[in-house]
Amino acid sequence: MVVNLSGAYQQVQGGIIDGLGHALYGEVTLKDGVPNQQNFDTYRLIRINEIPAVEVHFVDSAINPTGLGEPALPPAAAAFANAFFKATGKRLYNQPFMKEEAMKGVRFGVK
């Protein structure tokens, strides 16, 4: 049962996009135990021109409603890695994926 359809779409889309951003770029490095990335000016986030179209479908069920934002985030990295393998034949093993050798020269965004 979806209580607020518009809100549900937004939660799932946001979770997927956040998951992709972390999978591609999310990295925190330390120097003497202190994070080098102290704010968003030094922590790379996914940009709007890099975000793919996200299609969401809900299945009717009698299960009581729960949160939707968090469940969509974890599978995004695996989905991206599998799609990349299908397109290129190259596997991605370590996040952030943009640091992987297989991703060298790959660019995302609207042309």
Automatic annotation (TrEMBL):
Q: Which InterPro entries match?
A: AldOxase/xan_DH_MoCoBD2, AldOxase/xan_DH_Mopterin-bd_sf, N-heterocyclic_Hydroxylase
Residue ranges occupied by any Aldehyde oxidase/xanthine dehydrogenase second molybdopterin binding domain in the UniProt entry: 2-52
A Gene Ontology MF term for this entry? oxidoreductase activity
What is one Pfam family matched by this protein?
Answer: MoCoBD_2
* Gene3D superfamilies (UniProt xref): Aldehyde oxidase/xanthine dehydrogenase, molybdopterin binding domain
Tell me the protein's name: CO/xanthine dehydrogenase Mo-binding subunit
Tell me the classification of the organism that encodes this protein: Bacteria, Pseudomonadati, Bacteroidota, Cytophagia, Cytophagales
